[in-house]
Design brief:
The chain has about 190 residues and is an alpha/beta fold. It contains 5 helices and 5 strands; from the N terminus they run αββαββαααβ. It has a 3-stranded mixed β-sheet with strand order 2-1-3, covered by helices on one side. Strands 4-5 form a two-stranded parallel ribbon. The longest helix is centred in the first third of the chain and has 39 residues.
Length: about 190
């Protein structure tokens, strides 16, 4: 094998460095496009990203520091959404929401304030599926004590309920009942 001159070694070294720089720039630009797509969501509200199913768009409302619409990674939990919204606001009823529930795309997370928690005397606001009792569920139109117990059993068997839509898997809950439940319940 012929020996390489000093100038040839220098040229080969420069080519190798150039290839590495181009590769690094390409990797960074790919990540930048994903971040740009995420940022464009905030501008146009479309929610479409280069990653697609790798993210969930959720609306965090109620007793949080910065209520709003946030994009979180798929598999994120309610606690991640609350943190993203700046944490609990003063007067939040932290025990009234299931922080361990998985988020689903398009979900609304409502953090109730103390005195306005799910199951309170005023009866306002959605009931949290993560903390609801049989009695609280039984008060909702279309749910009787048997179906309420079925919801609790389903929640216990599946480690929680991440979406109201999961309730269609429970015997006794049909399409008409599902419509009523969407406004009365939250995961």
């Amino acid at each position: 094998m012929p020996e390489l001159s000093r100038s040839q070694l220098l040229v080969y070294g420069l080519v190798a460095v150039a290839v590495l720089l181009i590769g690094a720039r390409w990797i960074r630009s790919d990540r930048g496009q994903t971040e740009s797509a995420s940022l464009s969501f905030a501008a146009d509200g479309s929610g479409s990203t280069a990653g697609g199913a790798r993210e969930a768009v959720v609306h965090v409302a109620g007793a949080v520091a910065r209520p709003g619409v946030y994009m979180l990674p798929a598999g994120a939990r309610v606690t991640d959404a609350v943190k993203r919204a700046g944490g609990f606001a003063r007067g939040a009823d932290e025990g009234a929401i299931n922080l361990a529930a998985r988020l689903s795309d398009g979900q609304q997370v409502v953090v109730p304030g103390k005195g306005a928690a799910a199951g309170s005397e005023d009866g306002e606001g959605p009931i949290s599926l993560g903390t609801a009792t049989v009695e609280e569920l039984d008060e909702i139109e279309g749910i009787g004590p048997v179906t309420a117990q079925g919801i609790i059993d389903f929640r216990d068997q599946h480690g929680g309920i991440s979406s109201v839509e999961q309730l269609d898997q429970i015997s006794g809950i049909g399409p008409a009942t599902m419509e009523a439940l969407r406004s009365a319940l939250q995961p």
